[in-house]
Amino acid sequence: MILKGKKGIIFGALDTKSIAWKVAELAHAEGAEFILSNAPIALRMGAINELAAKTNSEVIGCDVTLEEDMNNLIDAAVAKYGKLDFVLHSIGMSLNVRKKIPYTELNYDFMHKTLDISAISFHRLMQTLLKKDAMNEWGSIVALSYIAAQRVFPDYSEMADAKSLLESFARSFGYHYGKSKKVRVNTISQSPTPTTAGSGVGGFDAFFNYADKMSPLGNAPSEACANYVVSLFSDYTRYVTMQNLFHDGGFSFTGISSDLMDIVVKSGE
């Protein structure tokens, strides 16, 4: 019950494959109360209502590109709980990726939308929380990222740029939020995970298998990521802020694995 008495908001639980879904289940088991939020189009799919029933949570739609929606959500959360203790930003979408538009030929209208939904929304969220003084001291805000923010994965396309911006916001806003309100802000760089959104990236299966063979511990599953997120919501990580935390089985610091070396050697025979 490491989250007993804590209140928050969890964005992005689309279906049972979602990391946000796993976080919500575990946060509930650890004693937290929270509002579930997603884009109105995602809410129409209906799956989130099952999670809400399971976790005794309220569902409030929010188009994260609209300040009005963000204001309404935070106002509703504060009216329900008072100040908040945690928020999870698990949001990402790219029309260029969905439409398989090559990175060198990106549609810029689509790109603006990608950056707004996947990264600028994180700044908009924190700005709204700060303006409304909606977070308790030592509260925790977490966003989900990916190592494509640091390395090139061609099929990840413009989402890599969005993740780079997301991580920058965590550092920059994290400084100001920590200084003024003692609120901590971090991103988690997760292994490739077979979520509904992640599986839509071209070549995902090959990508997933490569990372699994590269990582000494193998790919981190979504359930393990939920454990990590919940630990960052808890009081055990009070002095962790402005960090991009790799949760990837060691992939991020491995040059090449023996498994991949064997494959390379055999392919050259």
Task: Give the SSE map.
Elements: E1 7-11, H1 19-29, E2 33-38, H2 40-43, H3 47-55, E3 58-61, H4 67-81, E4 84-89, H5 95-98, H6 108-131, E5 135-145, H7 159-181, E6 184-190, H8 204-214, H9 222-233, E7 244-247, H10 258-267
Parallel strand pairs: 1-2, 1-4, 2-3, 4-5, 5-6, 6-7
Helix pairs in contact: 1-3, 1-9, 4-6, 6-7
Q: Main beta sheet, described?
A: 7 strands, parallel
Give the terminus-to-terminus CA distance.
55 Å
Tell me the strand percentage band.
Answer: 15-25%
CATH homologous superfamily, by name?
NAD(P)-binding Rossmann-like Domain
Q: What would your notes on this structure say?
A:
- The protein has 269 residues and is an alpha/beta fold.
- The chain has one domain: Rossmann fold (3-Layer(aba) Sandwich).
- 46% of the residues lie in helices and 16% in strands.
- The protein has ten helices and seven strands.
- The protein has helices at 19-29, 40-43, 47-55, 67-81, 95-98, 108-131, 159-181, 204-214, 222-233, 258-267; strands spanning 7-11, 33-38, 58-61, 84-89, 135-145, 184-190, 244-247.
- Strand 5 (135-145), helix 7 and strand 6 form a beta-alpha-beta unit.
- The longest helix is centred in the middle third of the chain and has 24 residues, at 108-131.
